Amino acid sequence: MLLRQSRDDIPFERKLDDETFAQNAIEAFVTALEELRDEGEFTKAPHQPFLLLVEVSDSAPIEGMAERLNVDEDILSSYRAFAG
Question: 12-44, pLDDT tens digit by residue?
């Protein structure tokens, strides 16, 4: 975990194993994206429809991520068809 290794100066109240730390970090990132989406940040500029995803390069896809971050059912249907 590069973030954890590079930030020894951050005091943690309790020690977390790497898997728990990673899950919490991903959850924080996804929650921030949800808040930005809900505030309309992704719709301010003219654009083509897009799919917002979060994936970690060295782990399995996060179940339910596409549905959690995207509200456009047409985009989700296209993604599901593509992803199989």
Answer: 555 667 778 778 888 888 889 999 888 888 887
Q: Strand runs (DSSP E) across the chain, as ranges?
A: none
pTM for the model stands at: 0.65
Instruction: Tell me how far apart the terminal alpha carbons of the chain are, to the nearest angstrom.
Output: 30
Tell how many helices (H) and how many strands (E) occur in the chain. Answer: 4, 0
What is the Cα–Cα distance from 37 to 75, expressed in whole angstroms?
15
Place of tokens 């977390």: 16
Q: What does the alpha-carbon distance between residue 26 and residue 44 come to, in Å, rounded to a whole number?
A: 25
